[in-house]
Specification:
heterodimer, A: 12 helices, B: Rossmann fold, Coagulation Factor XIII, Chain A, domain 1, 7-stranded mixed sheet, globular
């Protein structure tokens, strides 16, 4: 409660920071906000070309020529949101060392700014994706609202994990390096580029139970590719994992808050 | 009314023998401690009342900045408590943590909001902040192209845009040109008159003496002295002098005959001290004050002739004035072993504010080239401060009489 109150007092700082950071990404480049789109777009094109055309990978039970692109977009765009929050979360204290050391303000403002910024970037790409779906008449209709709870679970998971790593990274800088490698593996161990069906039967249950992101990404894919509600039961474990990480992050922070500034 | 209450404050940093030790401590189930605590602040208590101003002095690395950080709240104490009442504005480590890629104006907004000033209020204050910082067109340029002086000026302008209840300034006064120093000093003084409580860390003795009601001296993380700024500074100077001497002796031990104390040793300076007009021993004197330099010389081996020379150097080592008893025709003849001579050298301290050192030479003629018994650099350090003279710059006091004639045109 105290945190929310102090957040409210610093709302102007949060809004201004979000605006500044957003501008910063674009003001010194000629193409500006276009880069936010061009990056994932190039990735999607590469994967579409390689996997859809060369490997002739087909999604089961769909026959649309765009189906694979939609499948890919649903996974890549949301995965990008996840990695943005996690990677920036793990550097949150280090990159803000400058102000943490000099000004006393509610620290909780930092993850809030991060989350809003990442969500804004996501919103840009996501709305383009929606446009693409409308143009190619793939728009799933009202089912799209099911994205909201999935997004909330995903963001909570990302911020909980990111902040946990953020605290650890202050004391053990290896964490940041290590986790960048983990993310590479994690991406390929999540059915984003390929459908679950191509996984060998031995590995499939392993990935589906032990990788919370698999269920989350699968939920998006279900909504966008098949236009149906996701399997809500599959999201129970990811939600619990997300909450657990948020708790871990909070208790780690509470325990080491006083040491963080000293260590920076 | 007490606005800052610090009691039994202590701050320790954890020191781990290896990088892995911290990990071992974190994951150990038995909670075995692998670290050692390095105490930078220990058992500090003091109170500051509303409107009071406290100067904190001490040589580098004695915990002054750590103390201010704890009072500001950016770092927390290991033991003890701090109670602070009122809005705090702090300039720690010479800045507010400006973001290098944002413009000056954007940084003003962000830092201002971090300091708890609202957006609309900042918009109102902006012209005043710009005017005070005097950085002109640069206000709309990214901060990364600013000089350090410009950054400091902007930071100071933001932090003091609105009068805080408590203003904490760490060394900020020593940055920037003399003009801005003076200007910021004026603002601090004005705040104090309006009731702001001040906490200032500075090496600038005259600044602290001019603005603070009381001062504390930190030495190795503890309060070594608490009292009026004058008292504290005298003590501080003594502490520095002690440190200076110890450096000298260590050099002497290693090198044997080093220039700082060279000579054959037939005669040696046993004691050197500076006395003010009241005859009290002191290290800080006022501009123009009549002082007495006492040098006690002991003869260790009988010599034919003894000449004492001395020089007063500024902080850069330039000799401001120097002479010897050869020139004054006061040569001591036939000095025998175990004799002691006390030289009383009286002169007015017609120097500009600053730090000076005295070098002494015991020789047998007008130079130390024939027989050099002992030569000491930095035999004594003293400070000159301007208390009652007209404001001036330079290393010597040369009070003018200025008259203005008017010719109607």
């Amino acid at each position: 409660m105290k945190h929310i109150q102090s957040l409210w007092q610093y709302k102007e700082f949060i809004i201004a920071s979000v605006k500044r950071e957003f501008q910063l990404n674009y003001q010194s480049s000629l193409l500006g906000a276009l880069w936010t789109v061009l990056n994932p777009l190039s990735m999607i094109i590469i994967y579409t070309v390689i996997f859809s055309q060369i490997m002739r990978a087909k999604l089961p039970e769909t026959d649309s020529i765009y189906a694979y692109s939609v499948y890919l977009c649903a996974g890549i765009i949301t995965w990008a949101l996840f990695t943005e929050i996690v990677t920036r979360g793990q550097n949150i204290f280090i990159s803000n060392a400058n102000i943490l050391k000099k000004i006393n303000f509610p620290r909780i403002a930092l993850p809030v700014i991060l989350t809003i910024n990442a969500s804004l970037n996501f919103a840009i790409i996501f709305s383009l994706f929606l446009c693409f779906m409308i143009i190619t008449s793939q728009f799933p209709g009202m089912v799209i609202l099911a994205v909201i709870p999935v997004l909330i679970i995903q963001i909570l998971f990302a911020i909980g994990l990111g902040l946990t790593l953020g605290v650890l990274n202050v004391f053990f800088r290896d964490v940041g390096q290590f986790f960048n490698i983990v993310l590479q593996f994690w991406f390929w161990l999540t059915p984003i580029v390929y459908p679950v069906s191509i996984l060998p039967e031995i590995i499939k249950p392993l990935i589906l139970t032990w990788n919370p992101m698999a269920a989350i990404i699968a939920a998006y894919q279900t909504i966008f590719v098949y236009g149906t509600m996701p399997d809500w039961n599959s999201l129970i474990i990811p939600s619990l994992v997300a909450l657990t990480f948020c708790m871990i992050a909070m208790s780690l922070y509470a325990k080491h808050a006083h040491e963080i500034v000293d260590e920076l | 009314m007490t606005v800052i209450q610090v009691s039994k404050l202590g701050k320790a940093y954890k020191k781990y023998p290896t990088r892995w030790a911290r990990l071992a401590e974190w994951v150990s189930i038995k909670k075995t401690k692998k670290h050692q605590l390095t105490w930078v602040i220990k058992d500090i208590s003091f109170t500051v009342k509303k409107g009071e101003s406290l100067g904190i002095v001490g040589i580098n690395g004695t915990g002054k900045s750590t103390l201010l950080k704890m009072i500001t709240g950016t770092t927390s104490p290991t033991e003890g408590t701090i109670q602070v009442h009122g809005r705090v504005a702090a300039l720690l480590e010479l800045g507010l943590g400006f973001h290098p890629d944002f413009t000056g104006r954007e940084n003003v907004m962000l830092s201002g909001q971090l300091l708890g000033i609202s957006h609309s209020e900042l918009n109102q204050l902006m012209p005043q902040i710009e005017a005070f910082a005097e950085i002109g067109e640069y206000i709309d340029q990214p901060v990364r192209i600013y000089s350090s002086g410009m950054q400091m000026r902007l930071a100071f302008s933001v932090a003091t845009a609105k009068r805080p209840d408590i203003l904490i300034v760490d060394e900020a006064l020593s940055v920037g040109d003399a003009y801005f120093q003076h200007k910021s000093f004026e603002r601090i003084r004005a705040f104090r008159e309006e009731g702001t409580t001040l906490l200032i860390v500075s090496h600038d003795k005259s600044a602290i003496q001019a603005i603070c009601d009381k001062a504390i001296l930190l030495d190795s993380g503890q309060i070594a002295k608490e009292g009026t700024p004058e008292e504290v500074f005298d003590y501080y100077n003594a502490l520095i002098a002690k440190k200076e001497n110890s450096i000298v002796t260590s050099v002497q031990n290693n090198e044997g005959k080093f220039q700082t104390t060279s000579g054959t040793g037939e005669a040696k300076v046993k004691d050197i001290s500076l006395h003010n007009s009241k005859g009290e021993k002191c290290n800080t004197i006022a501009v123009g004050e009549p002082v007495n330099l006492r040098i006690k010389v002991k003869i260790h081996q009988s010599i034919e002739k003894l000449v004492l020379g001395y020089g007063i150097k500024d902080r850069l080592g330039q000799v401001m004035y120097g002479t010897n008893t050869w020139h004054t025709k006061q040569i001591v003849h036939q000095a025998s072993e175990n004799d002691e001579y006390i030289y009383h050298i009286s002169f007015p301290a017609n120097f500009g504010p600053g730090t000076y050192s005295i070098q002494t030479a015991l020789v047998d003629s007008d130079s130390h080239l024939t027989n050099n018994y002992e030569w000491i650099d930095l035999a004594l350090m003293f400070n000159v401060i301007n208390i009652d003279k007209t404001q001036f710059v330079g290393y010597q006091w040369n009070e003018p009489l200025i008259s203005i004639e008017k010719h109607n045109g």
